[in-house]
Amino acid sequence: PYTTLFRSMLDLIEREITHAREGRPARIIAKINRLTDLEIIDALYRASQSGVPIDLIVRSSCMLRPGVPGLSETVRVRSIVGQFLEHSRIFYFANGGADDVFIGSADWMTRNLDRRVEVVTPILDADLKRYLKDVVLGAYLRDNVKARILDSDGFYHPVPKAPGEGSFNSQLHFEGSINAT
Taking the CB of residue 64, how many other CB atoms lie within 10 A of it? Predict the structure, then answer.
């Protein structure tokens, strides 16, 4: 008895697997608060085993283990917790080069996918898609101040900075954008 949202999320992950296997652009980026649904986790493991690059920005609980040889080598998980409580959910799928971006309220948790009224909607405007992917998700993936990287043993570590790389705090970046308007 799965909800349409649950089936849709699984279908989107499976579509990325197909794209990767057929040599088309494939990638998943998800910014959520929690990742605990076992079927979504299994689908992400299958995607990784098919070569899909996966970046997960999971603020809280994450039951997936990234970087496990033969299981989740292409998965990277980071958590960002700072002065602002993060509640945005953004889902990016490369879709063979025809990028799909969704925003919504659902985390990848069983209770959110099966037992609650949650909404996820596609972004249709090309400029807004690009903004959400490149600016918003890009900032979270660049964060090297508040972000912590989850290793395959289940421990979080600070993001290592490349030589000469400056500090970048995604929350202060967006706070500055808000205050500038």
Answer: 24
